[in-house]
Amino acid sequence: MKIVIALLKPFSFVPAILMMFLIYSFSAQPGEVSGDLSYKISYTIVETKNEVLNEGKGYDELSYEADSIHYYVRKAAHMTEYFLLAIAISFPLYVYGVRGIWLMILAGIVCVGFAGLDEYHQSFVDARTPSLKDVGIDSTGAFIGILLVQAFCWSVLNNPNKKKRKRSR
Length: 169
Fold this sequence. Notes:
By secondary structure, the protein is mostly helical. The chain has helices at about 1-10, 15-25, 30-50, 60-95, 100-120, 130-155. The chain is globular.
């Protein structure tokens, strides 16, 4: 059984690699395509709110409202991507025995480094520009994800309600 676990351990990084690919794919979209996608999401949010609350707003009002939240939807998407990336990186590191501050440092370096490289990559994409502010937003999402993994692992492994097994000699 230990051999199977040892062989499968490296696959624990697959979600992180897939998340990096997804982030890179979104960053490779030209500015107009990326903006249209996030605007559609913004519009869907305000349209759903309009239907749920039965506000009866027309297209122009919904469009104006979607424009007003568009920036925040884009930044929330940045945070969410890096939040998920941090989780996808932190769990495999935890599996490999990285704990505590070292997990936070190593996962943080990977996430912030990838955020910086991703912004640099955007400098080569049509109508996209790199932004240090976006790296900060990405890093905030990553930090929250890393803290969540730390808290989850600590609470599961240090559960005071869990009875400790006694070793028999």
